[in-house]
Description:
It is a single chain. This protein is of the alpha+beta class and 369 residues long. It has 13 helices and 14 strands. It has helices spanning 4-7, 10-18, 39-44, 49-53, 126-138, 186-196, 208-213, 241-252, 255-263, 277-306, 318-328, 335-342, 348-354; strands at 22-26, 32-37, 55-60, 66-68, 75-76, 96-100, 104-111, 114-118, 148-155, 169-177, 199-200, 203-204, 221-228, 231-239. The strands form 3 sheets. A 5-stranded mixed beta sheet has the order 5-14-13-6-12. A 5-stranded mixed beta sheet has the order 8-7-9-10-11. It has a 4-stranded antiparallel beta sheet with strand order 1-2-3-4. A hairpin with a 2-residue loop joins strand 7 (104-111) and strand 8. The chain is elongated, with a radius of gyration of 27 Å.
Amino acid sequence: MIKISDLLDMDVLAKHVADRTVNVQPHPESSLRIANYTQRCQFSGAWDDVSMQCRGLIFDADSLGVVARPWRKFWNLGDVRFPETLPENLPNSLPTITRKLDGSLGISYTLDGLQCIATRGSFISDQAIWGTKWIREQHAEIVIPDGWTALWEIVYDENRIVVRYEWEGLVCLGLVKIDTGEEMPLNQAKHWADSQGVRYVETFDKPLAELAEEDGDNEEGYVATWLFEAGPPLKVKIKYGTYVQIHKILTGTSIVGVWELLRDGKDLSPLKSGVPAEFCAWLDGLESRLWGEYRALEGRALAAFRAYPGAIDDPRNSVQRKAFAAYAVGQGQVTPLLFTLLDGGDIGPAIWKMIRPRGDEGTFKKDEE
């Protein structure tokens, strides 16, 4: 069995962990660990051989043996940051074309003789729990070839991102040899899937240039794969423009982002075009919540200002201002708003600042790709 130290530079891995660009999560009931790049890695562009291999890599903390090996991180066709994805640098041979499914990556591993599914960064995410339950109930007798990792797309309605499917389950995306990282050839992988009675990802016979021009509704796109003997494949994603646009809205629209739009007087309706109804409901609920908080503070401030028992002929009069201050400091959260009202100012900007959501409240959907 290959060890993680044979696969990765352990000093570089330690630095990634220290920098929080790679996260190593323990299994709750065993010595297994799963290594995955983080959002910090994505935002900072801290990509190297180690971080790109940490995409759900599972190893044993005691023996350091690699238990499951998914594909390394791969990119969109024509990503200028990664020259290998540029059309002029692609291999001359024809790639295998498969459907890009819109769910969560599932990674097979075995624990105490039982089949389990992890996701990129967790043994116990909602998707991992769902996938493990599904494979045990639907394919309890499945036999994954020794020394290989089966990779799946986890698809179920509650895990919907953009594309709505008329079915739920695990779809085999391919198998990776743990020692070398090579991908099992398509005909062999499909033969294995058929022998086990599991669904295999849809394949196509189309030119790459044609795929890059396609677009459509309710589909994500394609993956092109070039296999290499005794080594990891080259894989690129070809995504539909419509999907990319909607996905960006669903995974990039944060609660803070919506707050900023409302604070700046922007219309939210452009965000609701062509997106799932669930997102529109989420957006409407968030808008209602934020405006409710705004109006509650505004109402409290105006009521407290009007209830001031003293007379104010001149807000600049020090005696009158001091008397007002003694009243205002007893009004709790709206105290600073009362001084703005006293000076004839607009309390709106201050209210928006006061109701700003926490930064950790996240987005409508988390990208688990």
